[in-house]
Design a protein that fits this description.
The protein is of the alpha+beta class. It contains twelve helices and 13 strands. The structure holds alpha-D-galactopyranose (GLA).
Length: about 375
Amino acid sequence: MRSSLATLAATATAALGRQPDWIAAAPGRVNLIGEHIDYCDGFVMPFAIDRYVVMAAAKNGTSMSRWSSEGQPDACIPHDETQKIGEPAWANYLRGVIEGFRSLGHDIPGIDVAVVSSVPRGAGLSSSAALECAVATLLESVLGIELSKRDKALICQKAEHEFAGVPCGIMDQFASTFGEADRLVMIDCRNQEVQLVPFENPDLTVIIANTRVHHQLSDGAYAERRRHTEQALACLAQSSWREVTLDQVMEKWQQLGEPVNRRARHVVTEIERTQRAAELLAAREYEAFGALMDASHASLRDDFEVSCAELDVMVDIAQSLRGRGVLGARMTGGGFGGSTVTLCETAKAEEVMAILRERYQAATGIEPEIFSSRPSRGAHAFAKGD
Ligand code: GLA
């Protein structure tokens, strides 16, 4: 579903059934490069996509919130008690963010909220971060406060850790809150510093291809990868991955053992690739940038082992179109299904998308969801009447 923010806001308002007091929106994200290193002090290069979770809300005169979202059971959340994980499961993201505001001492009044979304779910495009960041942005409006983007993103990350059981890094929530039109959100995850990097060349198009295969991140594989990186760092006797060189990893290869040694090699090489990618982008060296995306995919597939057959099929098709418009392609996000990201010449983008669709479906029997996206505005509230 590709709907404008205005359409999504109108749909949310209609679902609420009365004039909203507040409307808030937060986008999903795609990551160009820097995968599985946001929890390793690395650099990441996501941008907010033009797919949003939008919420329309109105006071309800109680001390609880009542939430409705298409295709999900309604949820009712009392605000005057410590939040706990419960049913329906989708509401745990809401509870987590509400708890974040409660723990800051805020007294949240009762609200009715209608939620709509154009962020594909389970597609590696951070629909959960978009949901969290939309709740946080809505609560800011309801309470008449404004948190720093960083603090807001950190509340949302904590919600994901404690209420969804995913020990994620900071990339998704930072991309959703800091995103801006025509800007990449380059994050130095060691000091949590954000640099908004121009990405506005009309000759470049970013294609997102959702394989429609979905494996839960909370199934333990994500947490296991994170544990491997922690084990590796301890074995390397370093306090930050930024101090680790590839030589050091290779010297300790046996001692690190399988598969931790390969996990370590991914982290070190991906940090290097992402730093280099930022330089290449500034120098407008897009072919070389694309080659790093290809290398990132190989590392995620072989060393970090977070790809899957369907992601590999999609990436292989895209990479086979190098010279026919494609500059580079890789899986994006946590992996184990989800989406790929392809950097493409705009003049060839339509043709490339058609080929991806056709060949992926022929190879897997699954109809993919393929669309292009541009860096878009991050989480924000709408003024009444907007
Ligand atoms: C998920 C997590 C992020 C990040 C990516 C992999 O999206 O939420 O923090 O670790 O996986 O790069």
